[in-house]
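Moderator note: this is an archived Q&A kept for reference. The question asked for a predicted structure of one protein chain; the sequence and the answer are reproduced below.
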Amino acid sequence: MKTIPPAERPPRSLVQMTAMAMTLCLLPGCSSPPAAHNLSGPPPTAFPLASVDPNGSESSVDPAGVLSLRDVLSLTLLHNPELASFSWQIRASEAVALQEGLSPNPELEAEIENFAGSDTLGGFDEAESTISISQLIELGGKKALRVRVAQLGTGLAAWEYQSQRLEVLTRASMHFIDVLAGQRQVELKSASLDLALEMMNGVSARIEAGKSSPLERTRAQVVVAQGRISLEQAKRSLESSRVLLASCWGKEVAQFPAVRGSLEQIHEVPEFDLLTSSLDENPTVSRWDLEISERRARIDLAAAEAVPDVTVSGGARLFQGTDETALLVGVSLPIPVFHRNQGLRREAEYNLSIATEKQRAVRVQLFANLHDSYQQLLSAYREVTALRDEVIPAAKSAYDGVQESYRQGKLAQLDVLDSQKTLFEVRDQYTRALTDYHRARSQVEGLLGKPISELKKGGSR
């Protein structure tokens, strides 16, 4: 076989050498990462995400009819801006889990030595060209543990969404109650004004008949003026409540004409022990089991990161002087003499202790909040029943009797005005008590994470 002199051999290109190096790089770390499995899964009682356009466009809603509580809650779930942002947060955490499941990229390195020197090394005749590819191989199960931590973080984001959803729905319920109470106040103030006008007309008739002093008309006019002021204040307060309610579904102006509901529909208050049995179903409490699992996974990850990773490399080298090639293989491994991730491992253990204490603190605080809201609910319920069954009937009967006696000339106008004022105040107190009852009930249900009506049957107070 004829030997071809080096000067006549076809030059080996960098592309050819790259192909050789890539052929050598049949290393485990160069393969595609396996699909990450969902190690955490969604929370067992996860709520569906709010409806948002994946392209980022905002859904428009402009309710123009009379709204029930169910309508308000549906609008809030679908269009509340806070809930929409939380749904994107969950998707962002899912993207983090995807990223953590990817392996490090291989590195390509090219090197030329022994050229542009002196004498025989002045050109490229004696140059040595090397091309290699290296891959970091993670040991200790780091990638799987990172994926687990990220997936547990996704589960925590879902729990945060549930907590925020519960808070938003509770707030919407309270704004609905405020609007309903505001409508009732406007009706009561309007009825009170009509009653004051009727009283003033009756006084005018008595003055014309010579049965009363003109001073009584002045007193009646003062009551009418006060009634008009109270009615205007009630209307302004109602409008403020309407705007707050519309903000629950992302609107700045309340287009709906009114809300529909009954403040007088109340129910007996169950025993406190029945409520506490459902306290752990609140997402604020439930999330901490997953939080503790996530902290434990971080401890495992910190321990795995103490295991050194191996970098494996392979390539080819061209000796230009002899036009010969050779393969090269390398392995590098850090020696864990000083840095063994001691600080981060200890930090992860401390963070687990922090989570355990926070779980206990959250439940204690939630119990205290529930007890406070329960006492408000019980107090409002008893006030409502007392006003409804005893005080209001007595005040109405007294007013009717005083008014009849005034017509007969047996009592003075001041007696009528005093009785009228008492009746108005009692009606206002009744409306406030009803409002307090429903607000406290909404607060209790927000802490429990479910309606009181869904609790198992038990004693009531």
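Archived answer notes: Residues 13-27+69-103+138-306+341-454 form a domain with the Outer membrane efflux proteins (OEP) fold (CATH 1.20.1600.10).
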